[in-house]
Amino acid sequence: MYVLPALAIYGYVVIVPTIQSVWYSFWDWNGVGAATWVWFGNYVDFLSNPRLGLALQHTLVFMFFYALLPICLGLVSAALVSRSGTRGNGFFRTVIFLPQVLTSVVIVVMWNELFSTSGLVNSTLKAVGLDSLVQPWLGSFQWALPVLGLAGTWTTMGLCMLLFISGVGNIPGELYDAVRVDGAGAFREFFSVTLPGLVPQIAVALTLTIIGALRVFDLVWLTTRGGPGDSTVTPSLLLYQTAFTEGEVGGGAAVGVCLAVVSIAIALVIVSFTDRRNA
After folding, report:
1. What is the pTM of this model?
2. Eight-state DSSP code of residue 140
3. Per 3-state DSSP, what percentage of the chain is helix, strand, and coil (rounded to 5)?
4. C-alpha closest to that of 235 among 256, 219, 221, 251
5. ω before 235 within 30° of 0 (cis)?
6. What angle, rounded to 10 degrees, do the helices at 69-81 and 89-97 form?
7. Please, are residues 30 and 251 in contact by the beta-carbon 8 Å criterion?
């Protein structure tokens, strides 16, 4: 009875719209006029979309910047700031975690200021005599995607670090004492005790960051809108353009359902692997 009000709200704002999206995905509907039942036609159109391949390639790049790189940096930072005797631990934790609480609009403004033609990055390159490297980073077919990926690394690294710090606190101190008695240094201590003890936290971080990479939208839309050309297009951007630019609400719902299924599948795979690892 205590959780019933919260469960009712959750069902209304999450479960009901999810069911509606699945239902809409079987219709050819512009959101206003009459709808036509097309069965799996919207799914076929999405999977045969020539831009889908590009979007998936870009998602793999975002997975590197949103998942692999932040987790590696989060592990290193957690190992450093969680060691006793390190000065300024609180300051470093705050600085690293700060991007996690910033809104997407703030991050976009910062990235535009940093990587614009007259931004800090180009100004620094000119100041050190590297004028040949100056370019419109967010307007480059080659560099726009990695630059946006760096924003993802900067924002998600703090979350990973926080998860790993909490995990380190749950590792029995006797394990560290044992490896230190054996003469282990910092590196062996990390790989023998810290890393195996953080498997559950790594699984959580991997799930959250990979799903975050799959649903990247606001950062791309507010900076490049998928451009230049299609060099930064993502599946979430295809969803928005299909539903609201092209007026195909049913098609957009089909894209959303596909992304949800892929996200759930990834989460189940990671959970299954973690359960076998801890068994």
Report:
1. 0.88
2. -
3. 75, 0, 25
4. 256
5. no
6. 160
7. no
Tokens of 9: 């709200």
Distance CA 98, CA 158 (A): 7
Between CA 138 and CA 141, with CA 140 as vertex, the angle to 5 degrees is 120
Which structure tokens are listed for 118? 């007259």
Strand pairing class (36-37; 27-28)? antiparallel
In which residue are the tokens 């004492």 written? Answer: 177
Residue pair 175/227 in contact (Cβ under 8 Å)? The answer is: no
Query: How does pLDDT run across 234-268, given as a tens digit for each residue?
Result: 999 999 999 999 989 999 999 999 999 999 999 99
DSSP 222-275: HHTTT-STTTT--HHHHHHIIIIIS--HHHHHHHHHHHHHHHHHHHHHHHHHHH
The string of pLDDT tens digits covering residues 36-54 is 999 999 999 999 998 999 9
CA distance 189 to 79: 10
